[in-house]
Amino acid sequence: MNKTNNIRVRIAPSPTGFFHIGTARTALFNWLFARKHGGAFIVRIEDTDRERSKAEFEVDITESLEWLGLVPDEFYRQSERTEIYKKYLEKLLKERKAFYCAHSIEELEQESERQKKAGQVPCHLCDDRDARITEGIIRFKNNETDAIIIGDLIRGEIRFDPRLIGDFALARNLEEPLYNFANTVDDREMDMSHVIRGEDHISNTPKQILVGRALGFTQPRWTHVPLLLGSDRSKLSKRHGALAVREYRAQGYLPEAMLNFVALLGWHPPAGKRGEREREVFSRDELIELFSLERIQKAGAIAEMQKLDWFNREYLKKLSDKEFIDRAAPFISSPEGKRVPKELLPIFKKRITRLSDVDQEIRSIINLSDYEAGVLLKGDREGAHVCMIIDTILNILSRIDPQKFSGVTAREALDPLVKKEGIGSVLWPLRASLSGKEVSIGPFELVDILEKDEVVRRLIVARNKL
Ligand code: GLU
């Protein structure tokens, strides 16, 4: 543990792409660990690669984190810390633990090709490490021969042969540090107690350990979380569906559903009381309470995106009507959708997967598509009888004052007919006439959405089909 004995963890995304599900999971695990132990969750934008780093990606990272409610306690940007890295680079150069390398890119490429052909792991072994050159790439002088051992909290001991790492690059020059160097300096400068990150970084860890040792740093506790896999067990990629969190947000997935979904990618809470074993829906507070690094699995974690749909439906059902309206309203974009009073939106709460589906549902109701007469005849009902019922419904509903026309007044007016003929005999033809579908929202919900003239028109169309 570090000198203050406090838990301090971070995510260190590079703003070279949109914030994706894997980063969301790493962020969540770090955030949960910090919250559980009263520690700090830090976000550090690793934008030392000036060409590939883009402001729009940084904005996407911060907005996505905010959307998920993973708000950092501290925020840093590496591009603003050049002086700090420079100081440490100068120290390493002065102590001859780093050196300027005179090899050209072509020479390095040739070396790497040669090594690959010989079946070796490509790494640069510099032959003029002591030359008094003062420009070129700054490299780490790797004299280590003893195995480097990572004590990983999830994977246990991982051993690396330092000779396979070579004299790796630390910086393009004093002003342009590279990933492994800046990352190591910052983890110490920012007093990280743990580094919790994706397993794809394991090969960087021995380099960071060597840099840390050369600078006399204490090491953080290393924790590498398993890779995310698609349903076919290959590394999760675009092929398996959208990966950018913003795409899910834009379709109307709820942040709480997304959090719950990613929490269970490679982590599981301890089995609860009997009957709780299968439980999957956990609130943010429950996740904080149950979370521990030890329960992160070693094996790759399969991300089934359909499971996110399931979580979203579960969380949508839990929303109060008011909350649902507040969340769904921004997703209503069509002219048809905008005509529907907002108070009616909860009609769709239990029927949709994403908030954007509401607009689609409304459009499919308002733009009635043609349908077969059979839709009107439920089970063994005779056409003539259904025709008579629709006529009676028409008669009754036509008498309601258009100003007062609603699901409630229609239900009241039709009550005697329902009592006489039976619920199904009246409500099926009414619902089928208004929706043109075998499955839809309820008849009086449809009445609420459609204006009186339209209801009457659809009942006439239905009757004429029989
Ligand atoms: N900048 C690295 C990345 O984007 C961060 C790695 C780390 O967490 O140490 O993957």
UniProtKB/TrEMBL annotation:
EC number: 6.1.1.17
Annotated residues for binding of ATP: 238
Glutamyl/glutaminyl-tRNA synthetase class Ib catalytic domain location: 7-310
Segments carrying motif 'HIGH' region: 13-23
Keyword vocabulary terms for this entry: Aminoacyl-tRNA synthetase, ATP-binding, Cytoplasm, Ligase, Nucleotide-binding, Protein biosynthesis
GO cellular component: cytosol
InterPro entries the UniProt entry points to: aa-tRNA-synth_I_cd-bd (IPR045462), aa-tRNA-synth_I_codon-bd_sub2 (IPR020751), aa-tRNA-synth_I_CS (IPR001412), aa_tRNA-synth_I_cd-bd_sf (IPR008925), Glu-tRNA-ligase_bac/mito (IPR004527), Glu/Gln-tRNA-synth (IPR000924), Glu/Gln-tRNA-synth_Ib_cat-dom (IPR020058), GluQ/Sye (IPR049940)
Sequence motif 'KMSKS' region, location on chain: 235-239
Main location per the UniProt record: cytoplasm
PANTHER family hit by this protein: GLUTAMATE--TRNA LIGASE (PTHR43311), GLUTAMATE--TRNA LIGASE, MITOCHONDRIAL-RELATED (PTHR43311:SF2)
UniProt-recorded name of the protein: Glutamate--tRNA ligase
